[in-house]
Amino acid sequence: MSVFDRLAEATLRENREGEIPDYIVPHLMEVAQHPERHSDQEWAVEILLMQVEDYDTYAESGCCKTAFSIEDIYMSLQRLGIQMDFWT
Amino acid sequence: MMPAYLDCNATTPVEKDVAREVQRFLVEEFGNPASPVHMYGTIARMAVEKARRDVAAVVAAQADDVIFTSGATESNNLALRGIAEAGLKSGCTHVICSAIEHKAVLEPVESLKKQGFEVTILPVLGSGIVSVAALTEALRPETLCVSIMHVNNETGVVQPLDEVADALADHPAWLHVDAAQGFGKELELLRLQRVDLISISAHKIFGPKGVGALIRRRRGEEYPPLTPLMLGGGQEQGLRPGTLAAHSIVGLGAAARIALRDLQARREACLAFKKEMLAALVPLGAVVHGDPQRTLPHTVNLSLPGVEAHLALSSLKNLLAFSNGSACTAHTQEPSHVLQAMGVQGSLLDEAIRLSWCHLTDQVDWSQVCSVIRQLQGGSR
Description:
Helices cover about 50% and strands about 0% of the residues of chain A. By secondary structure, chain A is mostly helical. Chain A has one domain.
C-alpha cells in the first residue's frame, strides 16, 4: 500500500473515529488522491500521514508535545503546495 | 578495481534512499528543529519526530523513549555513566557486564570504579555466549545495572537476552543492551520489555556515521534515572543538549524504516553469501569461532591455519577488504579480548579474521581468494 493510499485511509478513519475536523479532510484528500503531483515529495507525505495518525485537538496544551496539532498539519499541507484560503 | 568490502561490522555502505534523505535535510530542508515557529523549523522538527517513530518501531518502543545521540558509543556512556548518580544516591554501586563487550562499554564501566562502584565481568562460554549462570550468581541486592550486548561485533554471536531477562525477572537492576551490531537485523530480543536501555548506531544499518540513539523503556511509570553527561540546552528531554543534527537523524530514521521493510530479503542475501564463502574456505581448514547456530548471517570469525591475520590482510588486500577484529582495536597488535574470553588460544588467536558482509556486497571470486590462501599455507592443502 502506497503512502498516498495510507494517507487516504488514515484521513477517513481519523475523521470518522478520531478528531480530524471535517474542514481539513478535502485538503488531505487532495494530496492522497493525486500521487502524480507529489511523487517527489513522498517524504513530506509520510510526515503528513504521521500527523494525521497522531492528531490531537489539544496537542499544544500539555507540557510535552506527544501529538500533532492542526497547525502542524497546515504547515505540511502548505509545504506540499496545497492552497487553503483560511490559512494565510 | 576496489576489493570486495567484507567489513560491514565496522561500517556499512549507505543505502541510496537514505543518502537522498540526508542530502534533502542537509541542503533543502535545513531548518533547526528547535525553531518550529516557521515552516523551515517545523518541517525539520516533524522529520525528526518521524525518525523517532521509525527508530522506536524497530524495538516496539514509544517515540518518546528515543533519545538521539552521536552513536552507540555516546549512548553507552549516557546509559552507564548517566545512571551512576542514581546508584550512588541509592547505595546501589555494583555493575555487571560481560567480558566480550565492546570497549565503548568496558571503558565506561571501568571508569565507574573511580566513583566507588564494584564491577563484575561475566565470563563467556567457548561458543561465544555469555554465561547466564554466572550472571545469576553475580547478582547482588545492590546491583544497579547489567550491561550485555545484543550481538557480538567480532563473532556475530547473538547473546541470550531472553535468558538474561528471565534471570533479572525478580531483580530491580536496570538492563542495558549495546545493540550496535544487531539493531534492525534481529528483532525479537530487543523487543523484550525487560530491556530498559538500548544503544544503537545508524552507520551499522546503512545510515550515516555520527548519529545513533539511546532508547529508554519505562518500567511501569518510571524511566531509568539518567543524568545528562552534557549541559547546555533542553533538547532530547534534557538528556542530550545541543542542536539536533536533523539530516543525520532523518538518515537514521530512514535506515531503520528500510531495515524493517527489507529484513527478510537482506537476511536471505547474507545467508547465500555465507554459504558460498564457507564452501570455499572450510576445505582450507578454516576454524570458525562462535556457535554457528547463534550467529547472524552476515558475520564469520575464523582462523585459517598457517596464515597469520596480518599476512592474510596484506596478501588479500587487492581482493578483499576485511579486518582482524573490532574496528576500534584493529589498528593494534593486541589479540582479540573477545576470542581470548572464549578460550581461543595459540596460533588460532593470531590467525583469526573477521569477515562481515551485507546485501550490497559484490560477488567475490572465491577461487582466486583460495588460491592466495593456499600459497600462504605453503600449498599444504
